[in-house]
Design brief:
With 230 residues, the protein is of the alpha/beta class. It is built from nine helices and six strands, in the order βαβαβαβαβαβαααα. This is Iron-sulfur cluster carrier protein.
């Protein structure tokens, strides 16, 4: 079982959208997947509840007490191949617990100078945790994922992205700001929407399926690159 945790000291960086997309990528690849919502706002958990139906291959649970995480993961190991943990945009002792239980840490970062600075704080926390560990080689690898990237970024966005690549380990594939993620909010997982569009009797809607497939391929590539970051 692979546990991937979002770790960022900034809210609004696109953590929930990214973690939902990565969980969707794992499910669409045929893997039983658990998404754990440890953010007090419970955006991921509430999204799944509001769908009003089960999603084959995907279970979403809420986590209010980080001390309960280990037991939750022990239970998940019986069936799940992947676990994705969404977290709040802040620091705290809870982060130590999540780091200990994770195989990979990812830090979503929007392309702005402010986000570079806050990502630096998160990365410094990770570096201090590595230094304090009895065996640093057992620490999960840390990667930054550039999120909410427009297809035509401004010069300031490009400069922020360049600064990130110079300062942190960054996943090559960027998580683009796609309208399709808004459709996921309303209708359900991306892989289901892609299939629905492909089979729509309206030829125009069938033509739109490629946008959903592109978003799904992007999430799959990011997931593959996270796992290759060891």
């Amino acid at each position: 079982m692979i546990v991937i945790t979002a770790l960022s000291r900034k809210g609004g960086s696109g953590k929930t959208t990214l973690m939902r997309a990565l969980a969707d990528a794992a499910v669409s690849n045929g893997h039983e997947t658990l998404a754990i919502d440890a953010d007090p706002q419970k955006a991921l958990f509430r999204w799944h509840q509001d769908l009003g139906r089960e999603t084959p291959g995907l279970t979403v649970k809420e986590l209010d007490d980080p001390n309960a995480l280990e037991a939750m993961l022990d239970e998940a190991e019986k069936t799940a191949a992947y676990v994705f943990i969404d977290t709040l945009g802040a620091g705290g002792m809870w982060a130590d617990i999540l780091v200990e239980q994770s195989n990979f840490l990812i830090c979503p970062m929007m392309p702005s100078e402010t986000d570079v600075k806050i990502t630096r704080d998160t990365y410094q926390y990770y570096r201090r945790a590595c230094e304090a560990a009895d065996d640093p080689s057992l620490m999960p690898p840390f990667s930054v994922v550039l999120t909410r990237m427009p297809s035509k970024p401004t010069k300031s966005m490009v400069l922020a992205a360049q600064a990130a690549f110079e300062a942190f380990p960054v996943i090559d594939e960027m998580f683009l700001d796609r309208a399709q993620h808004g459709d996921v909010d309303r209708e359900g997982p991306m892989h289901e929407l892609a299939e629905k569009r492909q089979n729509d009797p309206n030829a125009l809607m069938r033509g739109h399926a490629r946008y959903y497939l592109d978003a799904l391929r992007e999430a799959r590539t990011i997931l593959e690159q996270i796992e290759a970051s060891q």
